[in-house]
Amino acid sequence: MTHEIAVIPGDGIGQEVTPAAVEVLEALDVDFSFTEAEAGDAVKAETGEALPEETYELAATADATLFGAAGETAADVILPLREAVGSFVNIRPAKAYPGIDAVRPETDLVFLRENTEGVYSGHEDRLTEDVATLTRVTTQSASEQLAEFACEYAGPESEHDGFTIAHKANVMRETDGLFRDTVAEVAADNGVDTDEVLIDAFATKVCLDPTQFDVIVCPNLAGDVLSDLAAGLVGGLGLLPSANIGPDRGLFEPVHGTAPDIAGEGVANPAATIISAAMLLEYLDYDEEAAAVHAAVEETLADGPRTPDLGGNASTADVTAAVIERL
Amino acid sequence: MTHEIAVIPGDGIGQEVTPAAVEVLEALDVDFSFTEAEAGDAVKAETGEALPEETYELAATADATLFGAAGETAADVILPLREAVGSFVNIRPAKAYPGIDAVRPETDLVFLRENTEGVYSGHEDRLTEDVATLTRVTTQSASEQLAEFACEYAGPESEHDGFTIAHKANVMRETDGLFRDTVAEVAADNGVDTDEVLIDAFATKVCLDPTQFDVIVCPNLAGDVLSDLAAGLVGGLGLLPSANIGPDRGLFEPVHGTAPDIAGEGVANPAATIISAAMLLEYLDYDEEAAAVHAAVEETLADGPRTPDLGGNASTADVTAAVIERL
Ligand SMILES: CC(C)[C@H](C(=O)O)[C@@H](O)C(=O)O
Ligand SMILES: CC(C)[C@H](C(=O)O)[C@@H](O)C(=O)O
């Protein structure tokens, strides 16, 4: 069966790393049909729309979308795209790679971030000159859906041993309380082990010893900040992939941005986008191919060639060719 | 003029480190009158109230309050106490001390955390079986008051060179937008330099290089999580003090908790509480005495004696005596 893959390079180095990842996918024995679409600052400057209707529609109908990066318009692009694929979970692995400078090289974490609600639900009001409010929404149904996913991801059949629920229910008693209780209950019903941690305590503890955690399930904004914290521990956003998973489709994107300082020079590191493409393969049940891409990227990170961000002087094309050769 | 000082040891090691800090204050030539009051798990178990009315009243009328720690009831104690003193800013320094193990020993940051609103404003509803909401509140007036404080704290007359505004206004456009714009405007009006950073980007950047930041001004929950992250970078919560400042009074507390594993053994490290007491002295304009306490604690941390958490085998009393001797 042919899978329809939407490709949205976006701005800056998105224009360089996204085609690199597509090249890697094309080098595999997979039945993909690629369609490219525009989003981001550049298309907004031209048309007034950061996310053209046809791009939204493409993501909403394709089996999977590979997205690069967007500049100033990032929130206007990525939040609707996550909605387009109906994504209820954002998977964010944060792992240090051998040979890459990291504050905490022993870090190997996966965040399962709720991807639809919390403060992202977008209900804000300027009530008076003085007062603005935002309605933070937590639903039992979204918490359940996330928890069911987490139970598959980190349950007895997996390589993980349950998960940690991160929350701030000592202050947000109703909302994070509902989140925590619902997730814990689904896990208990599925025979999956969980423990819990306050998000502030997590921030301290993960710096002191990241190996005390493995899979972390958390609300939307907490996942945003805590996964970026973990990115800091493994040496930066440069190598981190992510997957936004919905019931019928997914959206895959590197965690890094547009890197305007090096955009256009052909030296952007394509690793995070290629690893995101490996997550796309996994999602579409091309498990062997996914494993091959992961292994090829790891070898290339270890033995080179390396782009300037990792101290080398190779180009995006050199690294991409090296990954393809190692497949 | 005699200053009335409320002393609330609370639970666990709070009962050990708070009297230690009071001993240090008593060793100075200051005109303080101490009154002790109860709060926390123990008094709740006895009376049903984690924060008895008379304790609240004492904090609401004393010139300054020194608080130790509370256990399970922490939120029920500390949030009303902050309100009792009318605290609009929580000052949280995070600095690594020479000779103390730290992931990032070069860390030297101060968080100025908004202390009254955001998700802490406490308006939550369970709308239906499925839906819970929390109203996050941001006011121009609270943002202004915080900004005015920050301008004094980090402005031209200070040892700092302006401050960084941390926010998530790309998602919380009205609320964090109002916060960011108000704080930036007050700073501009006062000739104080500012820059800004998204809280997720801050989490990555501060791990990669904490020296790129100095004073960080942020909303309530962001300050909670990001200051605890900084605590992780300097080696843990063990040495971190904090000051909750209101228009007419203040509340001073170590950032650490009750440490139930070592409570009652007389070996808790009193440093964070003694440094919090130094912040109390500063607040009451005993600048020389404050400097003497800071110096005595730093010397003691460097040369010992040390409590077990820092690899020594001294008692709380030994460390307290050593600090007093060095005053
Ligand atoms: C661009 C922004 C809206 C987005 C988010 O907050 O989710 C980004 O920080 C991310 O984590 O992908
Ligand atoms: C105990 C809790 C309510 C409190 C907070 O969230 O402010 C604590 O984490 C702190 O930072 O002092």
From TrEMBL, chains A, B:
This protein's UniProt keywords: Oxidoreductase
EC number(s) reported in the record: 1.1.1.85
GO biological process, one term: tricarboxylic acid cycle
UniProt-recorded Gene Ontology molecular function terms: 3-isopropylmalate dehydrogenase activity; isocitrate dehydrogenase (NAD+) activity
EC top class named in words: oxidoreductase
One of the Pfam families matching this protein, by short name: Iso_dh
InterPro entries the record matches: IsoPropMal-DH-like_dom
Domain Isopropylmalate dehydrogenase-like: 4-323
Positions of transmembrane segments: none
Entry's family note: Belongs to the isocitrate and isopropylmalate dehydrogenases family.
Protein name: 3-isopropylmalate dehydrogenase
Organism: Natrialba magadii (strain ATCC 43099 / DSM 3394 / CCM 3739 / CIP 104546 / IAM 13178 / JCM 8861 / NBRC 102185 / NCIMB 2190 / MS3) (Natronobacterium magadii)
